Amino acid sequence: MTQVLVIGAGPAGLAAATAASALGADVTVLDSSYDLGGQYWRHLPSTRPTASEGILLHGFERFRELRERLENDSQVRILTLSQVWAIDRNPDTRNAGDSSVGDRWRVHVLQGVPDGHDRLALTIIPDAIVFATGAHDRTLPFTGWQLPGVFSAGAAQALAKGERVAVGSRVVVSGAGPFLLPVAASLVQAGAKVLGVYEASTISRLASGWLPRPWQLLGAPGKAAELVGYVGNHLRNRIPYRTGRAVIAAEGDGRVERVVVARLDANWAPIVGTTRTIEADAVCIGHGFTPRLELPIAVGCALSAERFVAVDHRQATSSPGVYAAGEITGIGGVDAALAEGSIAGHSAAGGSDDEAAMSRQRRLRAASTRFAARIEAAHGIRPGWSQWLTPDTLICRCEEVSYGRLCDTSAHTGSAGLRSLKLSTRAGLGICQGRVCGRTVEDLLGRLAAGGLIDTTSTDRRPIVSPIRLGELAGGTVLPPAPPPPGNTEERE
Ligand SMILES: Cc1cc2nc3c(=O)[nH]c(=O)nc-3n(C[C@H](O)[C@H](O)[C@H](O)COP(=O)(O)OP(=O)(O)OC[C@H]3O[C@@H](n4cnc5c(N)ncnc54)[C@H](O)[C@@H]3O)c2cc1C
Questions:
Q1: Which residues line ligand 1 (CB under 6 A)?
Q2: Range of the domain at 64
Q3: Is the pTM here over 0.85, yes or no?
């Protein structure tokens, strides 16, 4: 029986695990979170359920269905609170060839409460891997974004969805993309007053991204309906939605007390003389998403020009036996993640790609991919944003590296090496390891270096994905394959 390891239990991972087990594979699906569901279906812990969960989360019935199916499937092992912290070459079979992923890769997992003292170190050696690790949200910096009261939109939404906690009582939401709408909705549901949603793209850019070929939107009816729901929420709660505007500074004595909003031109450069100050105690910022690429990079997966994991029509990566699905292959939303997950799980379990069920998933994937292209056309980051920076604006908050320091170091060294510039400035080398600022540091240094940078993929390379104690490194148990289900006498190969 093929052993498939699915890393990440969001929509893509749940769909992958379901499809792999339907083909008879022995499936392990794991996630670092307390519960299954990923970002889209983040919900209150099962110890504190609420009757309104289904109303608060879109498609929650689909989630319940997937979860129940997996929980009741004896071929599926579910590991929550399980963080993959590294993948390395399997020394036992280093020269054994490429007959399975297990011949080449060992997956190292820490199971237990994050930062707990009794985490269990496990090693899994599967036949095939599906990466479904999603993305984290991208936040462009502005003066004062280090103040308490500034949140990434994703963090604010995670608190609202997973804890029913609002990050403030008078909140401004700013950034780009349709994701700002569910963030505002979650904040309202958690009890905050949302003072406004400020979308950086101008109305003409939004129109050029969303309006052409409207019939294509019919291929993604779930998303269109969801969008209509959010617009209704805005109208009911009288939340202003302003386009071509952005929060360009946060101010306050020790925490956010007000934000400065400016009008932007089509390139996202602030227009002089258009600023306005709004009294607020929190601001949530989101400018799209950055895929979590550490693990695919560790096993040598090729990346696309847009810096996602490159996959073929079967969701296979360039690394044999390794598949990828969901947000790490492109920002396509939940429907794309579900379709890609189904295809990836099916392929990882050895399924043939001409089965009818797979052609349906491929059609769904194609429709969702078109939706994603519209998001990029309408809301993709434009270069003019750097004009709202001042020399004192912090770019890397962990190491407190300012924009002025990046400019000075680049001018003095004349270096085109991202790694050497990061080592000289320490930008991106702090506790978050560049997850928050990495792409921004790379963008700004790339503009400053004549001829661009020479080693950009180093931004996403993190061989140790999450911190590990020395004691945990010393221990470790190899996780045996799950026992075959009752009545199944098939020998393992
Ligand atoms: C913060 C955030 C909030 C979002 N909210 C919305 C929303 O409200 N509405 C909407 O339409 N879209 C939202 N999106 C987009 C949404 O994530 C996608 O549409 C969809 O959830 C993608 O599914 P996925 O399975 O690819 O990834 P995800 O749902 O992100 O699932 C990935 C899972 O992998 C796990 N994981 C990652 N790395 C590891 C590791 N090393 N070890 C173990 N587990 C790991 C994570 O814990 C996570 O549960 C959000 C995205 C983000 C980043």
A1: 7-13, 30-33, 38-40, 83-84, 132-137, 154, 157-158, 179, 182, 289, 292, 326-327, 333-334, 337, 465
A2: 3-135+290-353
A3: yes
